[in-house]
Design goal:
The complex is a heterodimer of chains A (about 425) and B (about 170). Helix content of chain A is about 65%, strand content about 0%. Mean pLDDT of chain A is about 95; it is low at about 400-420. Chain A has two domains: about 35-220 and about 235-285, Cytochrome Bc1 Complex, Chain C (Up-down Bundle); about 285-395, Helix Hairpins (Orthogonal Bundle). Chain A is mostly helical. Chain A has helices spanning about 10-20, 20-30, 45-60, 75-80, 85-115, 125-145, 150-160, 170-180, 185-215, 235-260, 290-300, 305-315, 320-325, 335-355, 360-390, 400-405, 410, 415-420; strands at about 35, 235. Chain B has two domains: about 1-40; about 45-170, Rieske [2Fe-2S] iron-sulphur domain (Rieske Iron-sulfur Protein), CATH 2.102.10. Chain B has helices at about 1-35, 40-45, 80-85, 100; strands at about 50, 60-65, 70-75, 105-110, 120-125, 130-135, 140, 145-150, 160-165, 165-170. In chain B, the strands form three sheets. Chain B has a four-stranded antiparallel β-sheet, with no helix packed on it. Chain B has a three-stranded antiparallel β-sheet with strand order 1-10-9, with no helix packed on it. The chains are: A mainly alpha (about 425), B alpha+beta (about 170). The interface of A and B includes residues 180, 182, 277, 282 and 301 of A. The complex binds protoporphyrin IX containing FE (HEM) and FE2/S2 (inorganic) cluster. The site of protoporphyrin IX containing FE has 26 residues of chain A, from helix 3, helix 5, helix 6 and helix 9.
Chain lengths: ~425, ~170
């Protein structure tokens, strides 16, 4: 977004751009002014885009060999693994790719939590991001059903049964979801259809997410508003593209480590046993990225209650911009919020851990305390903290504390504080 | 003035009528797209199964598949029957007499589906010596009634009948 409007240099370029301004769009993306202090936590947006494209490309070719039928699906996966040229590679990229996708999205989300990126004027970016996250969970869940192993089948049974907790209409909804009286072939074929569709809806939402981002521009590590373009910003290309690319390369190295050296650590061995509706594996666990929610579900000894808390724990995130009212965005200047941020991380990790363990004894106790704390954080601590916390003084711009050597106290005062004094 | 009012009324009527017709039309088009996901005719057709029970010893059970779901057929021992019958109904989260759950007290026929989230419980396990669901820890007694854990109701009894002494027809 330079000051002068973009004009293509070639005659054809100008002719075309007058009819469809694609070149203007590409110029906007190159010049897009970006805060110059973005750190590596900001590279995960690019990494996530890479993950989505990877899943779509590998998924498309897997779908050329996969057969969506209860009697054939399991064998077709083995066929992909043994017979199809590089089939093992494509499948391992796709299955580990899902895990890497979630790893990246969790880092991306906690980045937003730390730096207050969900706050005004970026609420819509945050909400679209949450919708993407919810669709990702649905997509990955349905994808995990496709190999039709024991975990596929029983995971699908447990998750679809969540809806049976809804009073009166619950049974009807589960029957409708299944297309029968249990998870069976009709369930598999519709899950395949939707698993194919959802990533393209996600792609559309990603475009809206970035569009919404380009209206106010990026947040940044110190969380203050900056003038754009100014000496606080750099053009997206080449400064950010090269930084994103470097981070992406490191990410791909780790990703490759999983694919080539331990492609099954994030899966479950029971999924190499074909689905059997008569035998439930002794210990059902969802994929690692859903474990904290699973722990919340199991922490409640009541069916409907557990399901309500499970959905509430996800949907509460949509309301976050209105729960945390603190005007200061970045946790760098919020000494108390910063502590609670790390406690929340520990809480979610602990929930994830007990979600993988049997729901009894000490594990159950931790799950209950963890669940209570999760809701306490969002519903009590955040609203309360944003009223009472004494935040540190904000710098006036990104450049000043950096160029001025020791920050000058006069410059560190926020506008609000200056008025008060 | 009078004329004008009359005109607006007629407009209003036309608007309401067209919105209504439009809404009904859209609903009628959407419904087939929703209903196609409900169980189809071939799924509904597999609704009954006959099972030979002559080989089941007392204390043993078999599991058969009916409508894609496991059905437990258990030949209960004297002590199991007694235990199921002597329970005080007030202790039960979902009070049902054992007599209401069986046709012949020796034979317990029920859906082997945990009423929590649908796992298949394990036989002869748990604190009430009936069934135990390993998924989230629901305990059932020798009548398949929920006693402890997150499951809300007793395991369901399907429609079934004794065709003769050795055969049960489910469905
Ligand atoms: C948001 C993007 C996506 C995610 C998170 C995702 C996730 C998954 C997961 C977790 C599995 C199970 C892997 C396993 O254990 O074997 C799977 C399987 C599968 N997915 Fe995807 N997927 C995505 C996009 C796609 C797309 C766009 C297609 C089709 C064009 C596709 C086609 C398939 C097929 C055919 C399988 C079965 C083969 C297999 O299990 O390896 N996926 N997906
Ligand atoms: S499915 Fe049986 S306890 Fe949850």
């Amino acid at each position: 977004m330079s000051d002068t409007p973009y004009v293509p240099s070639s005659k054809f370029g100008k002719w075309f751009n007058d009819r469809l301004p694609l070149l203007t769009l590409s110029a906007h993306l190159q010049d897009y002014p970006t805060p110059k202090n973005l750190n590596y936590w900001w590279t995960f947006g690019g990494i996530l885009t890479f993950c989505l494209v990877t899943q779509i490309v590998t998924g498309l070719v897997l779908a050329m060999h996969y057969v969506a039928h209860a009697d054939l699906a399991f064998d077709s996966i083995e066929h992909i693994m043994r017979d199809v040229n590089y089939g093992w590679l494509l499948r391992y990229i796709h299955s580990n790719g899902a895990s890497m996708f979630f790893l990246a999205v969790y880092i991306h989300i906690f980045r937003a939590l730390f730096y207050g990126s969900y706050k005004s004027p970026r609420e819509v970016i945050w909400i679209i991001g949450m919708l993407i996250y919810i669709l990702m969970m649905a997509t990955a869940f349905m994808g995990y059903v496709l190999p039709w192993g024991q975990m596929s089948f029983w995971g699908a049974t447990v998750i679809t049964n969540l809806f049976s907790a809804i009073p009166f209409v619950g049974e009807g909804i589960t029957t409708w979801l299944w297309g029968g009286y249990s998870v069976d072939n009709p369930t598999l074929t519709r899950f395949f259809s939707l698993h194919y569709l959802f990533p393209f809806i996600i792609l559309g939402l990603v475009i809206l997410h970035i569009w919404a981002l380009h209206v106010p521009g990026n947040n940044n590590p110190i969380g203050i508003d900056i003038k754009k373009p100014s000496k606080d910003t750099v053009p997206f290309h080449p400064y950010i593209t090269i930084k994103d690319l470097f981070a992406l390369l490191i990410f791909i190295i780790i990703f490759s480590g999983f694919i080539f050296f331990s492609p099954n650590v994030m899966g479950h061995p029971d999924n190499y046993i074909q689905a059997n509706p008569l035998i439930t594996p002794t210990h059902i666990v969802p994929e690692w990225y859903l474990l904290p929610f699973y722990a919340i579900l199991r922490s409640v000894p009541d069916k409907l209650g557990g399901v309500i808390l499970l959905f509430a724990s996800i949907f509460i995130l949509l309301a976050l911009p209105w729960l945390d009212k603190s005007k200061v965005r970045s946790a760098v200047f919020r000494p108390i919020y910063r502590i609670f941020f790390w406690v929340l991380i520990i809480d979610v990790l602990a929930l994830g851990y007990v979600g993988a363990m049997p729901a009894e004894g000490l594990y159950l106790l931790i799950a209950r305390v963890g669940t209570a704390y999760y809701f306490l954080h969002f519903l009590v601590i955040l609203p309360f903290l944003s009223r009472v916390e004494k935040t540190d003084p904000l710098p006036l711009s990104i450049s000043e504390p950096v160029f001025g050597g020791m920050p000058k106290p006069a410059m560190m005062k926020s506008d609000k504080k200056n008025k008060n004094e | 003035m009078d004329k004008l009012e009359k005109k607006t009324n007629r407009r209003d009527f036309l608007f309401t009528a067209s919105y209504t017709v439009g809404a009904v039309g859209i609903g009628a088009v959407i419904w087939p797209f929703v209903d196609q996901m409900n169980p189809d005719r071939s799924v509904k057709a597999l609704a009954t199964t006959e099972v030979d029970i002559s080989q089941i010893e007392p204390g043993k059970s078999i599991t058969v598949l009916w409508r894609g779901k496991p059905v437990f057929i258990k030949r209960r021992t004297e002590s199991e029957i007694l235990e199921a019958q002597k329970v005080n109904l007030n202790e039960l989260p979902h009070p049902e007499k054992d007599e209401e759950r069986v046709k012949k007290s020796e034979w317990l026929v029920m859906l082997g589906v945990c009423t929590h989230l649908g796992c298949v419980p394990l036989a002869d396990k748990g604190e009430y010596k009936g069934w135990f669901c390993p998924c989230h820890g629901s305990h059932y007694d020798t009548s398949g009634r929920i006693r402890k854990g997150p499951a809300p109701t007793n395991m369901e009894i399907p429609k079934y009948e004794f065709v003769n002494n050795n055969t049960i027809k489910i469905g």
